[in-house]
Specification:
This protein is of the alpha+beta class. It has nine helices and 14 strands.
């Protein structure tokens, strides 16, 4: 699927969420903790579903997405340097048992999910910033790098405008992003700013061919907006799932490592009902299990998307994480020489989902007679996930609520 950019006339607004959990079969089982990976994967499904549901309620008529991995990486990093009630809450949020599970699981996910040698693999940059008055310990910096692949350093916050420009310049150099943090979000003292960026090129397999461009009459409530789209034909996995009252379409990605899933509510304005049902950690797995291969003709929104999201809103929806944003409420050790006052001041994330090269072509002979025809012309969901070539426990990498008829900001 291609997402229409927030820079188009439709002025799409987005908050993005990405959960990235699965395991790649060639990795040695001797360095794996499959039970812990499964627990974290199912927790990711649950958090993704809950975040999309709450986000859609708060932002009616808008695109809303949730980026889970940067939030979980932040939580896990703090857990490695916490104790007492803070430690218990952070582990409960992750659904993990101890620090050893964190040290084992997260490097595995980084190795699997951001393999630059794999076609279509996403690129992730994790950065952490602290005021020079709150100097980070070498152990804290080294752990963030070795466990999560992130970079941590200090910035002089005494001039907030200069500090914001310095951070934004660094993030912009890592991708097509700009102005992710404002000077108003920077405060001198013990606050930690976790800032990340994510780029994914959507690349479909040859099983599905795009044949022409199409204008889609997108309707939500009483509003109708014409948006650019594309039509294609080919082999997809399709299901009409009664338990969530929605139709699902799964398109395979190039080389069969990724797949792109669309969930279209059967009721015209049934999106929130579907989202509420997807808060169940097992619901996403049912979507994956129920799909059967059919020949289909699909019309979907076209374009790319660059989106900024504030994951603090997501985190504060959990009672287990609210204290991490309050100075003096965390029981930390070894973070910095001001660890008693260290807290999280922001968790910001930017995502760029962009289409790969599209060559319009005639559909393959095996799909000369489509068995189903669908147009994504009303509010629906879009997920990016891995296929079973990567692992049997599949969770969303990206989850998107696609509704573009609203005019309010996030």
């Amino acid at each position: 699927m291609h997402l229409t950019s927030g820079r188009t006339p439709a002025m799409l607004r987005v908050i993005l969420a990405c959960g990235y959990f699965l395991y790649y079969l060639p990795l040695s089982e001797s360095v794996r903790d499959i039970d812990a990976e499964n627990r974290l994967a199912f927790e990711s499904n649950k958090i993704t579903g809950e975040t999309l549901y709450e986000g859609a309620k708060r932002n009616p008529g808008q695109i809303y997405t949730t980026a889970i991995f940067p939030l979980l990486a932040t939580t896990a990093q703090l857990a490695l340097f916490s104790e007492g009630k803070t430690y218990e809450n952070l582990l409960s949020f992750l659904n993990l048992k101890d620090k050893n599970e964190i040290r084992t699981i997260f490097p595995t996910f980084i190795e699997i999910l951001f393999n630059k040698d794999r076609i279509g693999s996403p690129t992730l940059n994790l950065n952490m910033y602290s005021d020079t008055s709150n100097r980070l310990s070498p152990a804290f910096i080294d752990t963030y790098n070795k466990t999560f692949g992130g970079k941590a350093r200090t910035v002089d916050y005494s001039d907030t405008v200069k500090a914001a420009n310095e951070i934004n310049d660094e993030v912009e150099n890592e991708g097509e992003f700009n102005n992710i943090i404002s000077s108003k979000m920077i405060k001198e003292g013990g606050g930690l700013s976790f800032i990340s960026s994510y780029v994914l090129t959507i690349m479909y397999s040859d099983k599905f061919k795009f044949i022409n461009e199409k204008t889609i009459n997108f309707k939500s409530g009483n509003k109708v907006i014409n948006i650019p789209g594309i039509t294609g034909e080919g082999v997809v996995k399709y299901a009409d799932i009664k338990s969530i009252d929605a139709k699902t379409i799964e398109l395979e990605g190039k080389d069969g490592l990724y797949s792109y899933i669309m969930v279209l509510p059967n009721k015209h304005d049934g999106l929130l009902e579907v989202l509420e049902k997807l808060c169940d950690s097992t619901a996403f797995q049912e979507i994956l299990d129920r799909g059967e291969e059919v020949c289909a003709k699909l019309s979907i929104p076209a374009g790319d998307l660059i989106a900024k999201c504030d994951l603090e809103k997501t985190a504060k929806e959990s009672n287990l994480l609210r204290d991490i944003f309050e100075e003096g409420r965390l029981e930390l050790q070894g973070v910095s020489h001001k660890y008693n006052n260290t807290y999280v001041s922001s968790i910001l994330h930017e995502v760029h989902l962009k289409p790969g090269p599209i060559i319009y072509d005639e559909p393959r002979e095996l799909c000369s007679m489509p068995q189903i025809e669908l147009e994504m012309n009303r509010p629906h969901l879009f997920y990016v996930t891995f296929t079973q070539k990567v692992g049997p426990i599949r969770t969303p990498i990206v989850g998107v609520v696609f509704d573009i008829t609203g005019t309010t900001s996030n």
